[in-house]
């Protein structure tokens, strides 16, 4: 979509949404206003950098704090992502989704303005600049898991048309002043027309979080987000990265590391050592089990995000215990032989029995053939 057609769209949307309770109040910012808010995009104001460009902290004349995402180069692709992000974010409103304050398009400049999230991203606390401070106690981790699940469930089940995020990862879960999760970065989002189960598309996303059917065949559906979210849950529970480099040639996906431990009930070995044993055992177990069912290679075996929310909250004891008795958590080797043939199945089996990691092949395929940010 060109920038011009995006604005046509926006007008239509504005009209159709007129009077709706959740209509957003984003506005167009002038470049001058954003220059003065960010001290002319000063290096000291820089919060981070992604595939799209740099993100700067800023303060508006009313005193409110903002984060400004500034597009790096104005290519057709970048402009399309910019338009999608503004369009998608402008339409959704939920306490666990990052709100859009507005946008700016002047000359070659394309900027998106968000609420500033003072506790930055989940990534910065798990693996980045804030990881040494150990601010993610167990209570915060559980509320981040449930909050971000709620935000994604809203995109999948309540937004019209339904939205697949396509880039769920730790750097896209931002944390507000109370450490509540806000899912961000909708530039990769895909709108699903009513009645469609999936869309086939060029693969976009981040290595380590890509569902196998999406990485290999470009089949994007809600369950691809469920897979990525499962990786995120395992990351949150263990403090490990989605893919660990065991040696220069050997990598291990977090789900392949956690599954054998979960099958043997060794949950305390999965828990992030930074927690120093300070966690609620039942909740840790739930987080890990849900993370693992979400990362099953067969998309039809993964739960929906609504089910994930219920499971994480532990709403039904029966559902949680039936999760525990799922065949994927049985120790018997029959788990493998029961499955039908296909690459998807072998990824589960081989990770348990031989340590050979088919997902790794998928990932390296992704690495060579797919654009990765
Ligand atoms: N609204 C915001 N508030 C605070 N920090 C933000 C905000 N948006 C983005 N950031 C920071 O900027 C970084 C870069 O963001 P982004 O361009 O989305 O790339 P990525 O998500 O791939 O890291 C994020 O990792 C985050 O630390
Ligand atoms: Mg991001």
Can you describe this structure?
- The chain is an alpha+beta fold.
- The protein folds into two domains: 19-115, Phosphorylase Kinase, domain 1; 119-367, Transferase(Phosphotransferase), domain 1, CATH 1.10.510.
- The chain is built from 14 helices and 14 strands.
- The strands form five sheets. Strands 1-5-6-4-3-2 form a six-stranded mixed sheet, sandwiched between helices. A two-stranded antiparallel ribbon has the order 7-10. It has a two-stranded antiparallel sheet with strand order 8-9.
- A hairpin with a 5-residue loop joins strand 13 (243-245) and strand 14 (251-253).
- Helix 7 packs antiparallel against helix 9 and helix 8 packs across helix 9.
- It starts with a helix and ends with a helix.
- The relative contact order is 0.10.
- Residues 1-23 and 334-373 have low confidence and may be disordered.
- The structure holds adenosine-5'-diphosphate and magnesium ion.
């Amino acid at each position: 979509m060109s920038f011009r057609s995006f604005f046509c769209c926006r007008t239509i949307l504005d009209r159709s949404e007129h009077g709706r309770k959740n209509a957003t109040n984003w506005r167009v910012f002038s470049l001058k206003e954003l220059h003065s808010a960010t001290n002319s995009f000063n290096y000291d104001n820089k919060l981070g950098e992604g595939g799209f460009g740099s993100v700067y902290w800023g303060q508006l004349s009313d005193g409110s704090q903002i984060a400004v995402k500034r597009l790096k180069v104005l290519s057709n692709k970048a402009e399309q992502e910019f338009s999608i992000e503004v369009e998608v974010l402008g339409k959704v409103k939920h306490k666990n989704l990052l709100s859009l304050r507005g946008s700016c398009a002047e000359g070659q400049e394309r900027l998106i303005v968000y609420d500033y999230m003072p506790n930055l991203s989940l990534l910065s606390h798990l693996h980045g600049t804030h990881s040494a401070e150990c601010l993610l106690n167990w209570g915060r981790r559980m509320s981040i898991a449930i909050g971000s699940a709620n935000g994604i469930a809203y995109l999948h089940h309540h937004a019209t048309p339904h939205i697949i995020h396509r880039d769920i990862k730790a750097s896209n879960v931002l944390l507000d002043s109370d450490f509540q999760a806000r899912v961000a970065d909708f530039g990769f989002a895909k709108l699903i027309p009513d009645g469609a189960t999936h869309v086939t598309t060029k693969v976009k996303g981040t290595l380590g979080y890509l569902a196998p059917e999406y990485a290999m065949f470009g089949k994007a559906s809600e369950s691809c987000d469920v897979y990525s979210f499962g990786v995120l849950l395992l990351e949150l529970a263990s403090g490990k990265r989605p893919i660990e480099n065991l040696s220069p040639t050997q990598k291990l996906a977090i789900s392949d590391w956690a599954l054998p431990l979960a099958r043997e009930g060794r949950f305390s070995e999965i828990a992030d050592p930074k927690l120093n044993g300070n966690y609620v055992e039942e909740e840790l177990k739930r987080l890990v089990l849900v993370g693992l069912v979400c990362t099953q290679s067969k998309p039809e075996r993964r739960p929906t995000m609504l089910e994930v929310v219920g499971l994480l909250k532990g709403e039904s004891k029966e559902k949680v215990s039936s999760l525990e008795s799922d065949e994927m958590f049985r120790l018997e080797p029959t788990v493998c032989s029961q499955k039908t043939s296909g690459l998807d199945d072998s990824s589960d089996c081989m990770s348990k029995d031989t340590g050979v990691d088919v997902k790794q092949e998928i990932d390296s395929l992704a690495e060579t053939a797919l654009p990765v940010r």
